[in-house]
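agent> Task received from the user: take the single chain below, predict its 3D structure, and emit structure tokens. No templates, no multimer pairing.
agent> Plan: (1) validate residues, (2) run structure prediction, (3) serialize to tokens, (4) report one or two observations.
agent> Step 1 OK, no nonstandard residues flagged.
tool_call: predict_structure(input=
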Amino acid sequence: MKNSVLNLSSSLSLTVLLLTYNEEANIERTLAGLQWVSCILAVDSGSTDRTLEMLAATPTVTIRNRPFDSFAEQCNFGLDLIKTDWVLSLDADYIVTQALAEEISAFLQTPNPQHFTGFEIPFLYCIAGKPLRGTLLPPRICLYRTVGARYRNDGHGHRIVVSGKIGRFRHAILHDDRKPLERWLASQQRYLTLETLKLQATPCKQLSMADRLRLKTPFAPLAALVLCLIVKGGILDGWQGWTYAFQRCYAEILLKLMLLETRARHRVPDSKATDLLLGLRSL
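)
tool_result: status=success, residues=283
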């Protein structure tokens, strides 16, 4: 990374917030993209691989341990410990490119960065380290002012809630998860169970068009395949593009099967869906 970026770190009122759990396959690349930052807070959920060892080897990292209950609560725990004006919230398989680091640094060096309260950042999804032409991941608010920020759960994920003017950076974060396929498959049951309960517990009028498609029609898996391969250009990305398309299609098939099963068996009455959703997050 250029010296012009590295030399800015001491003057930036910025902390990177990282959630970690057995990220040995990813954390080294993530930390390499954060050499320009002087303060990194890692909230670890009980890693048993070399994640903690690799974090501890980086002088700018402070580690705090907290048993996992939900992504939002992990992030809020970290927010309560952060004293800088700004937070850059990242997953442990995100990579900040040099171009994005320069864009963030340039903004935080402006005379009045308080004009904004947060910034959305787009994503480039990677398979085996190769950035794909397109992704189904929407931009997320990853950079925001610490004061007044709070996370809430959203299905299997989490979202930051900030008030004020939200901007958008031009350069993207790389989402580059290189953990084994077995771990991705194992995570889908819990993620999709939470997503199923979210779709059932949320009034239809409050759902996005994509979520309405998932809930009301059988076409979401086919739509995901077409979007990834044709609309997003994945068919031009070789086997990596097909891999991503098949992953998204597979996840949508499982989600549709879960929705059909719960509807057929009436396992989750609509009136109890929210309570069960909160209970599963605590597991």
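agent> Step 4: summary for the user.
The chain has two domains: 3-175, 181-281.
agent> Done.
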